[in-house]
Amino acid sequence: MEKEKFYITTPIYYPSDKLHIGHTYCTVATDAIARYKRLKGFDVMFLTGTDEHGQKIEDKAREAGVSPQEFVDHIVEGQRGVKDLWKLMNVSNDRFIRTTDDYHVESIQKIFRKMYDKGDIYKGTYKGKYCKPCESFWTESQLVDGKCPDCGRDVIDAEEEAYFFRLSKYAGRVRDLLVNTDFLEPRSRVNEMVNNFIDPGLEDLCVSRTSFTWGIPVDFDPGHVVYVWVDALFNYMTALGYLNERYDDCEKYWPADVHIVGKEIVRFHSIIWPAMLMSMELPLPKKVFGHGWLLLDGGKMSKSKGNVVDPYLLSEKFGVDALRFFLLRTFPFGSDGNFSNELLIQTINTDLANDLGNLLSRTTAMVNKYFGGALPEGSGATEDEQYLNGLYADARRSRSEVNLAFNFPEGDPVKFDVELISAALMLREKYEDAMEHFAPHTALAEVFRVIDRANKYIDENAPWALAKNMEQNGARLAHVLYNLLEVTRICGVLLMPFIPGSCEKLFAQIGAAEDGRTWASAARWGTLAESSAVNKGENLFPRIDMEKALTELEEAEAEARKAALPPIELEPQLTEPVDFDTFCKNDFRAVKVKACEAVKKSAKLLRFTLDDGTGTDRQILSGIHAYYEPEELVGKTLVAIVNLPPRKMMGLESQGMLLSAVHTEKGEEKLNLIMVGDAIPAGAKLC
Ligand code: MSP
C-alpha cells in the first residue's frame, strides 16, 4: 500500500551569523515531528535550508572583505557552519535548499514574471519605513514608538522605484483562511495577525529593490532584485522542483502539511505566503505553526547583544541527545521559554540521569545479576496480560475498568503489573494526540509519567527481596524484570524521535530486536522476546555535577566570546603613492637607550634618554608603558624618527618618535618596539 505523504519544513535560516540555540530549537523540534511521522510509517519529506540573499548579507560580506557568495558559502558549508550543525544535532532533513542554488533562482524569476503577467505585480514608487536588519518594510501605523515592531530598532525613510504585489486584493480571502480554518496555530496567533495586520488594512507589498544588488535579478527589469521574502517563501516549492528541472516531487508532496516557523515570521507565512499562492493559483499549505522564542534573561538572543548560546558548546559538554531532549521537554512549543544552563543541567539530571537512566541501569543490572544476562523462558507476558493488548486496542478502557475486569484483591502483586501495563498501553495514544497537536513537551511528559510509574514498580516489587529466595520467588522475579524491560522498550520507541542516538543504545542494552522498535510495537505488550540477551552497557546519561559544570561552562563561554572577536584587525593599506624623495626626508636613526623611566602621573608614558650618535642626549617620550617596563629597555638599540618637530607631552619635550609595530588580535593590542642588533651603532641612518 502506498504510504501517506507528510511534507514538513523549517524556516530557511539567514546565514548572516553562526546559528544559535534558538535556531537549533526550531530545527530540532521539526526534526522530532518528522521522525515521529516516519516512525508512524509516513513517507516524510523534511526540508530545511538557508535564505542567502538580501542587504544584510551584502553588508556583512563587505565588512568581512569577501564577496557575498564567499560569505554565505563559509557560513553554510564551512566548518561548524549550518550544515555541520544539523549533522551534529542528528537532524534528519531529506533536503537542504540554498536560495543561491541555480534551480531556485530560475524558479523565482519565473514566479515573479507570472505574477507580473497576471497583473498582481505592478511598478510604482515605494515611500515608507524600512528596517535594515529585518529587511522589512513597514507602514507608519505598524511602527511601535516609531521603531521596527519586530526588533525595536530604528527604521529609515526609504523611497525607490519598485514593483508591488497586490496584497490588498487578497486581504478578504486571507482573513477568511485565518479566521475560519485551522490554517494557523496556535489560535492566539490568529488574533494577532487579524487585529494587527489585516483589519487595520493590508497595503500592497513592495517586492523589488534597487538599492542593493545581492538578490535574484528581476529578469525583465535589470537593476531590480526580488524582495528577499518572495525569494525565501517560495523555497518550500522550488525545493520540490516547482518551475525547475532539479526535482520533480511537487505533485507528490505539495501542499505542505505544515510549515514550522518562529512567531516573528508568522506574518510572512500566514498573510503574504498564502496571498502569493492564491495569486499563483496554487494549493495552500495545510498548516503554519508559530512556535515561541527561547529567551535569555527574559530577552531575545542576538549576536549584537552578545548573548547567544552556542549549541556546539552545549552538545560537546552534555551530549547531543541531552540537548535535544532538554529543548523539547522543557518549553511548551507554542510559547516563549527562558533558557538557562541551570535548567538544562537540572532537566538532564532529573529526567535523563535519574528517571530514565536509573530505570534502564537498575533493570539491566538486575537481569545480569540474578539471571546472568537473559531471563528464563516463561518470564514474558501471561495470557491475561496479552489479553490487555486487545482490551486497550479495542476500547481504550480506563485503568479502573481494567482493574474491575480482572478483579484483583488488594495487595495482589498482579495489580501492580496490570497498572504498569495499562499505563504503558495507554501511553501511545496520549503521546500521539500531543504530537499531532505540535506539543512535544506534552508527549514527553506522558512518557516520563510512565517512566516514573516503572520506577515505582521496582520499589513496589522489591526485586532484591524476591532474589533472597530464588527457588520460591525466581519466576516472579523474572516476570517483574521482564515487565521492566518491556516498559522501558515501549518508552524507548516513543523517545526515538527525540533522542534517536540514545534509543539505539537503549535497545541494544535491553536486547530489543527490530520488531520491538516499531510504532505498532509501542502499543503491544509482550513484544520483547522473553529470553533475549540483556547487556548492561555504558551509563547513557551520567549525572552532572551542577556547580562544576556551571563554572566550566562560564569559562568556555568566555573563551568562545574572545575567540569570536575578529581574529585580526588590520589597518587598511594606504593606496596613495609617496614619491621616493618625500620618503627620504624622514630621518630614521638607530638610538641606544641610556636611561628609561616612567613619567610621573602618566599611566602610559615612558621617558627615554637616548644616544643618537651626536654626542648630545636626545629625549623622546613614548606611550608604551603597557607593553614594556623601563628597566628592560636600557641598553637596547631602537629606531627613531629624529626630524619631527619637537612636541610637549605632560610638560616634557619629546624630540622625535620611536617606531614600533602594532597589531590587534582578538581584541588585544600587541606592540613591539623596532630594535636593531649590536652591530649597528647609535646614530646609524636607516634606509
Ligand atoms: N530567513 C528567514 C526565514 C525565511 S522562511 C521562508 C528567517 N531566518 S532566521 O535565521 O532569522 O530565523 C529562522 C528561524 O529561527 C525563525 O523561525 C526564528 O523564529 C527562529 N529563531 C531565531 N531565534 C530564535 C530564538 N531565540 N528562539 C526560537 N526560535 C528562534 O527568519
Distance separating the two termini? 86 Å
Rg, alpha carbons: 34 Å
What percent of the residues sit in helical stretches (DSSP H or I)?
40-55%
What gross morphology would you assign? flat
What is the average per-residue confidence, as pLDDT, rounded to a whole number? 92
Low-confidence stretches: none
- Helix count, per DSSP? 23
| Structural class label | alpha+beta
- Give a list of the ligands: 5'-O-[(L-methionyl)-sulphamoyl]adenosine
Quantity of strands, as a count: 27
Strand content: 15-25%
Give a quick account of the main beta sheet: strands, pairing sense, barrel closure: 7 strands, antiparallel
Tell me about this structure.
The protein is of the alpha+beta class. The chain contains 23 helices and 27 strands. The strands form 7 sheets. Strands 17, 18, 19, 20, 23, 26 and 27 form a 7-stranded antiparallel beta sheet that branches. Strands 3-2-1-11-12-7 form a 6-stranded parallel beta sheet, with helices on both faces. Helix 6 packs across helix 11 (266-279) and helix 14 (341-371) packs parallel to helix 18 (440-461). The termini are far apart. Bound molecules: 5'-O-[(L-methionyl)-sulphamoyl]adenosine (MSP). The site of 5'-O-[(L-methionyl)-sulphamoyl]adenosine has 19 residues, from helix 1, helix 8 and strand 11.
